[in-house]
Amino acid sequence: MICNISDLQYKEVIDIADGTRYGYIGDVEIDAQNGTIESVIISGKPRWFGLLGREPDTVFPWSSITRFGEDLILVDGRQRRQEAKPDTKSRHP
């Protein structure tokens, strides 16, 4: 199966250990020097309709991916990490 990076956003990420559904891929981290995908990023869910920001993103290293399917990606969830997006709002006037 050949897959483009843009096709990854339509694949749901599921943990093989406990069946947790993390959501859909929102972004990827690429090592431009080597031309390899380092990790996939699932965007955090909005808090209170997005008014209170978002939950931290979930990042899975490429090595945690165990299988690609037509519409899902199976991962080993023990290797995931949470990353909060930097606050883009200025706190000083």
Jot down its keywords:
93 residues; mainly beta; 0% helix
Structure description:
The chain is 0% helix and 41% strand. With 93 residues, it is an all-beta fold. A hairpin with a 3-residue loop joins strand 5 and strand 6. Residues 87-93 have low confidence and may be disordered.
SS-derived structural category = mainly beta
Number of helices: 0
Shape: globular
Side by side, the strands of the main sheet go: 5-6-1-2-3-4-7
Provide the succession of SSEs. EEEEEEE
CA(first)-CA(last) distance: 52 Å
State the share of residues found in helices, binned by percent.
under 10%
Hey, roughly how much beta strand do the residues contain?
35-45%
Name the poorly predicted regions: 87-93
Largest sheet: 7 strands, mixed
Mean pLDDT: 83
Radius of gyration: 15 Å
Quickly describe the structure.
This protein is mainly β and 93 residues long. The protein contains no helices and 7 strands. The chain is globular.
